[in-house]
Amino acid sequence: MSESDDHTLESPPVSDVSQYQPKPADLRRRLEVVGISLVGFLGAFVIAFVVLDWLRHYPSLGALPGTLFDQFLIAGMWADHVLGTNVFQHPFMWRSIATGVLIGIVAPLVGTYLVHRQMALIGETLAHTAFAGVAIGLLVMAVTGYEGSLLLIALVVSIVGALVVQWLADRTSTFGDVPIAIMLSGSFAIGTLLISWGRGYVSVPIDIEEFLFGSMSVVTADGARMMAVLSVAVVGIVAATYKQLLFITFDEQAARVAQLDVSAYNTLLVVMTAVVVVGAMQVLGVILVAGMLVIPVAAASQVARSFRETLYLSILIGQASIVGGFAFAISQSLPSGGSIIVVAISFYLLAVAFSLFTGRSTAISMH
Amino acid sequence: MSSAVDVRDVTFSYGEKLALDDVSLTVEEGDFLGLIGPNGSGKTTLLHIMLGLIEPDRGSVELFGNPVDEFDAGERIGYVSQQATSRGGTMPVTVRECVRMGRFAHVGHSRLTDEDRAIAEQALETVGISDLADRRVNQLSGGQRQRAYIARALASEADLLALDEPTVGVDAESRDAFYRLLDSLNASGITIILIEHDIGVVTDRADRIACINTELYHHGDTESFVESDALSEAYGATGTVVHHHH
């Protein structure tokens, strides 16, 4: 820029630039990075399982995927033997665990932006839209004989719902919550009507209750595969647009002045939310899914010192909630959705207590 | 000298209510323009139109010689909005993270380089808040927070700084220091547009004044504004006199 010569105040001399040394990371930061790396490793591990589970159905690829898959389950049997459990030898359990682990990564990731944009209600709304999507999917299957993925139809309906929400939000002065609240109950109402009406014509092959409250047994190979693909996409998109999403979340007007396409990033965020919600609905259930977007973030925001740390801690707390919730649900034979959310809320209360104890509470300022 | 902002025959209304009526004014590069007017006079609306945040019903705006809707050099403008409109109050963002946002328009989707980080550190130093870099923006006082936003604008190497009542809720001492900072930035060549409800501050600092109340009542240098009766005309038009805090 030609004017930069005049701006001695903000143009640092070259020597300053070369002298600048990033500060070494402190212990807390290092621990977080280790934690995030472990979560990343866990994510890669479950994705590997999902891929094996998929590839073993293609004999043209040789016997290797099938052999590896069997070895996986044998290792699971040993794990069960050692732990005295009856979990890791079953493919359907692994699919649920894989889906859960991925939810524990992507839900807090997207949720961090949603919560601080004060769009938490949108997550809940899209979950209810996804429920309507499931209902529509069941009808489509009954009427047309379509035998593909139910979740795929739910995903399409939910993304359409997300675009409608964004359209509504653009046309209200701020993210006014009344039209969104109407859409929340409206789409759920349509879902219940469609399901009741459909029951008169076709036998519904799926237990609706499992979609409402979440279940570990509802996850199909198909569902786990979809979650894996969506998770990779969401993590990739957030990594690529981290800065832009942060800027529009923090100061939308200034971001607009800096010529960021705020509307496009908003749409991206809402569509990613729809995607996460449909994936997470399998394990958490329609009614509880928004909790995973919000609670880990609320807990992290209590103790985090920066936005990046909020993101890291949200994912760590989210993952801990998933693992803890699964352990509780399996050991007590209770639904996974409720267990995960209760564990997440325990973490939230701990975080509030911690921030009150250390005297740096933001509980009051989170209004 | 070329113009930073060129507003021509701009009219804008919120539904039935006319906010701006046929306003034209030019801000030259290097100007320090004080934008004043009674509450509800359309100051913020005019600033938003200048920056392309809202589109006028009629008329046109040019930023640095380009129609505002085609202007894409976002890094050339630093905007400090009214405090209430940013999430700085609740979001866990550090001062350093906030200031680095000023580099985002430069790097797009690439990663920030060490040079970007160094420029952000330099901006923190210029506004005198280097020691607060690791604090959360919501733990700062009003004056410190405004400095953080100014530093963000400096980090983006902005040529034009637009501020909307930046010192509301800031104590008198910090406010004076803040305006001294604006003076020195202006002296270094940055164009400044300042909305301020305190007319005394504006006439002390700005070298040009635009006084509006839906229509433009005065636009010219500060001396001619003080001598004119634009102030009483503009403020008399609605019968509201702005409350002075000192």
UniProtKB/TrEMBL annotation, chain A:
GO biological process, one term: transmembrane transport
Record-annotated membrane-spanning stretches: 33-55, 92-114, 126-144, 150-169, 181-204, 224-242, 262-280, 286-304, 311-330, 336-357
Membrane topology, record value: Multi-pass membrane protein
InterPro entries from the UniProt entry: ABC_BtuC-like (IPR037294), ABC_TroCD (IPR001626)
Region of interest: Disordered: 1-20
Superkingdom, taxonomy of origin: Archaea
Pfam families: ABC-3 (PF00950)
Subcellular location: Membrane
One GO cellular component, as annotated: ATP-binding cassette (ABC) transporter complex
Keywords: Membrane, Transmembrane, Transmembrane helix
Family: Belongs to the ABC-3 integral membrane protein family.
Name of the protein: Metal ABC transporter permease
Organism whose genome encodes this protein: Natrarchaeobius chitinivorans
UniProtKB/TrEMBL annotation, chain B:
Pfam family, one: ABC_tran
Keywords assigned: ATP-binding, Nucleotide-binding, Transport
SUPFAM superfamilies: P-loop containing nucleoside triphosphate hydrolases
Domain (ABC transporter): residue spans on this chain: 5-239
Subunit comment: The complex is composed of two ATP-binding proteins (BtuD), two transmembrane proteins (BtuC) and a solute-binding protein (BtuF).
Annotated function: Required for corrinoid utilization. Probably part of the ABC transporter complex BtuCDF involved in cobalamin (vitamin B12) import. Probably responsible for energy coupling to the transport system.
Protein name from the UniProt record: Cobalamin import ATP-binding protein BtuD
UniProt source species: Natrarchaeobius chitinivorans
